[in-house]
Amino acid sequence: MSNVNRRSFFKISAGTLIGMTLGGVSLRAFAAEKVKLDDPMAAAMRYTHKSEVEGQNCGNCNLIQGEDGQEWRPCAIFPGKLVANEGWCAAWVKKV
Ligand code: SF4
Predict the structure, then answer these.
(1) pTM of the shown model
(2) Looking at ligand 1, which atom is closest to the CA of residue 45?
(3) Which of 11, 19, 33, 40 has the highest Cβ tally under 10 A?
């Protein structure tokens, strides 16, 4: 590899790395957005951050995603948003 080629290679690698890092940050920021109570979908599904239905919450709903033990987690009903583990909505389905 000539010096010029090596320099070009490092330039491309550094650019790619920065691009990937920034991409990751924006993806994480997007995924970390909590569902707002005035979100039209949340209102339609009567979503609340704190369940008032005994024995039902997002943490024991079959549509919850992500890892157990997280306070805020992705949900199949709200793509790209996070719901409260203690939350609830009308789409609640018993975890199987
Ligand atoms: S479907 Fe509703 S109850 Fe189930 S995890 Fe999502 S927001 Fe919570």
Answers:
(1) 0.70
(2) 2
(3) 33
